[in-house]
Amino acid sequence: MHLSRRRFLQGSAAILGSAGLQGASAEGLLASIEKQVIKAPPLPKGTWFHPRVCMVGERALMTVQPIMGSDHFGQVHCSTSADSGQSWSEFEPVQPLGWLRDADGLNEGVCDVTPEYHSQTGSVLALGHNVFYRDRGFYRDQPARWPVYAVWKDGRWGPRRRLQWDDPRGSSIYSNNCGQRHVLPDGDVIMSFTFGVKDKPRFVCGVRCRFDGSELRVLETGNALSNPVGRGLLEPSVTSFGGRFYMTIRAEDQRGYVAVSDNGIHYEPQQPWTWDDGEPLITSTTQQHWLTHSDGLFLVYTRRDAQNEKVIRWRAPLWVARVDPRTLHLIRSSERVLLPLVGDGVKAAELVPIMGNFGVCNVNARESWVTDGSWCPKTNRGELQLARIRWARPNALA
Fold it and tell me: Which domain holds residue 364?
């Protein structure tokens, strides 16, 4: 059953006492933000991209891959850190997530990987999706695409697998690419799909999966949310806060969207992200992700600003702001820069490394990370960045 707007607002008012939303400022929770550049092995062409991290006990595990051009990604690699991200092990290929040659002569790669630790099975589920290349670049007439994953356990990677979803609505694509997921106490995984048929705008929906430490299976999908502009609704990410589930969604109408659910499967109609004064958040076809503390809900995003007016899709800097769960508004006074713009976004925008393909990880009760691989299309260079967020109060979700 869908959650009514009235029920949501009434329930959210009750959440505030336990969730600890104290005024409009983020300063009550965000003690400090520090940028760190991760030292990475040199690449002859391109730079490292898509860095995303999960914690396996006290050790951080990161998946990352090269980018050589627009939507042109190399072999997925992994690295670990035993000293809270100060240093990282050698970048090693994740062999199951490499390139495969298909019968039509296309190279099938894997991209948009998000690793997440699954405590019930003691394993890491690294979930991305397939992508096809012809010769040296992205193949524009992509065949059908779907989620692809591999499982890391006890220092070893399992085989490459496809997440099956036999629904004709996803005949062209269904994916959780770049998406955040939530593991329930029973081990089931709440996530989301963007899906569609060829040459039509995509939909998104909530998804519940079962994971046994080896295979991931779809149990249930929810109602479809839609937007007719451009490619529709893309790259949804899910989090849980105060007993409810929240989905943030990329779109192509200079907006991002948010939807709420009481079970993570069936969502209320999405609404555009707006500030607490009602003004819309102006963004350009770029993903957003959740930064979730037990005492507060935050969104990480890119947006239009005077300093980046000529940067591609306004994709630098990376920002964070607190979310009011009663209204689903962003609290303007709480906004801070997570990763700053490098260069001049007005007079030399073509040299600004762009951001926006990033991950979020709760490292421990005192610290969370946002990892991003910046990339300048003109120079084909960039850097691996880590925004180290220190909390003023312990995060019980870590």
Answer: 1-36+289-398
